[in-house]
């Protein structure tokens, strides 16, 4: 049996985060996925913020004392020749415990996650960045549960976050973009309706000329949520999946 360091050291990359910290990127790990009729094999990476002084072997030696189960680490699923292919689709997907795991119909997050995976496989190349510190647009799961209670009393998503003392959206994409730069040097096409995500990649010179919108999965229980995305958060409505959804969202924007 190989020594752990023989196995793991060449699967870890350290890259600069700031003057005091690095990002430790682990992977790829072969990850076969099955969701209903959808099957594909992705290459999975995860990353962690570590002290600048730590070497790769020190990171490995210290993980058992880092209490990592008490926090969340982000990751990325890569498909195809992501490093070299000229055209690649990516999605920066914010974790949604209720939508992604439980299938909640209060939002469209689960739909967007699974649809993006299918789109990337059909395209032949891309990556889904799953951002673990983005729950509730950055307020965390417990705070999100409080926001949901307010939403049941006719607050919208923006009003609920503000009522709890948060900004509408506190998410940062900087760490994910740094990981993207490690995995690929060429521009990417972003799957999104969110102009803030487009601006974040554009600021780093990583964005292709166009983006791919992703509307769909509208239900009676998430209709108001989607309307608020357009009306108050500026989400781009240029490719709704169904004409009914386009007309509803257009009315919300007026």
Sum up the overall morphology in one term: globular
Number of structural domains: 2
Order of helices and strands: HEEEHEEHHEHHHHEHEHH
Strand percent estimate: 15-25%
Count of DSSP strands: 8
Question: Considering DSSP H and I runs of 4 or more, what fraction of the residues is helical?
Answer: 25-40%
What Rg, in angstroms, do the CA atoms define?
Answer: 19 Å
| Average pLDDT metric | 86
| Spatial order of strands in the largest sheet | 1-2-3-4-6-5-7-8
The assigned structural class equals alpha/beta
Q: Largest sheet, if any?
A: 8 strands, mixed
CATH fold description of the largest domain: Rossmann fold
Give a concise summary.
With 254 residues, this protein is of the alpha/beta class. 37% of the residues lie in helices and 24% in strands. It has two domains: 12-61 and 68-134 and 171-214, GTP cyclohydrolase II (Rossmann fold); 217-254, no CATH class.
Describe what you observe in this structure:
With about 250 residues, this protein is an alpha/beta fold. It has two domains: about 10-60 and about 70-135 and about 170-215, GTP cyclohydrolase II (Rossmann fold); about 215-254, no CATH class. About 35% of the residues lie in helices and about 25% in strands. The protein has eleven helices and eight strands. Strands 1-2-3-4-6-5-7-8 form an eight-stranded mixed sheet, with helices on both faces. Helix 6 packs across helix 7 and helix 10 packs across helix 11 (about 245-254). The chain starts with a helix and ends with a helix. About 30% of the residues are buried. Residues about 240-254 have low confidence and may be disordered.
